[in-house]
Amino acid sequence: MASPSKPDRVAWIQGPAAQCHPAPEAVAKPWRLILLGAPGVGKGTQADLLRQRLRACHLSTGEVFRAASKQNECELTPAMKAALEYMRRGDLVPDATVWDMVRERSGCLRCGGGFLLDGFPRTLSQAESLKQLMEAEGLPLTAVLNYELPLDEIVARLSGRRTCEKCKSVYHVTERPPQREGVCDRCGGALYQRDDDRPQSIAVRLEAYERSTEPLIEFYKKLGLLLHVQATGSPESICERTLAALTASRAAAPAQT
Ligand code: AP5
Prior knowledge:
The protein is α/β, with parallel strands linked by helices.
């Protein structure tokens, strides 16, 4: 089956002045999901598969920062320049910068097609800010997916990742290789290794995850939104597992979602 055309998400990636093509289709019960899990667990890969099935946009905060890093340096605000330095080291970008960026793009959270938030929130402060905004807008979250994988597999996934510089499709040198080495199957763009996928940055990112992001598991558990998903096996089997968990949780709480 041909996958539905992928909205270019420019309103998310470039900011609210830009308009997405095609505009995401509004649906009766939009999925509003957060994807949690350690760096490299496969959130981006799952978000891409899920958006084809659920028709919700994949909104990654890391992607916004990486797009900014490709801009001319004099077009960047001082806060964004500082943010990119944090990112290169593998550290978390300060909450205030991340929140300004997300709030500016809150139209994407209101979008009638729903959303798959990947990489946000990542701290309790970000989660509180998002909760307040969603409550003020009357937009309930459907669920928070927590992907789980042993550490050695996480490191192997990160070290072998390659990303398309044009369409951002994600590959792995052994687990999900492109048909032609170094070339994206989807758009022919060149594949590159992210700066923060080098060993010294991977260690910093995993430490930042444990310190700042793991507490969100308890936060969303208390809100009754958390769904655990084992991230072992093929991406397609993990996606099926995710869809089964979502269907079961929606059936159990039809009035809330
Ligand atoms: P971000 O872009 O969010 O990175 P991340 O959370 O570290 O997650 P990754 O993109 O590394 O991994 P993923 O889980 O999406 O895995 P993927 O699907 O690619 O953030 C980058 C940086 O930006 C942060 O470090 C921070 O500095 C900053 N930032 C962003 N948001 C922020 C925020 N809210 N607050 C503060 N700072 C923020 O898969 C990984 C590899 O595994 C790929 O090669 C893939 O092909 C392969 N793979 C996937 N699934 C499978 C499978 N089932 N089997 C085998 N291989 C697989």
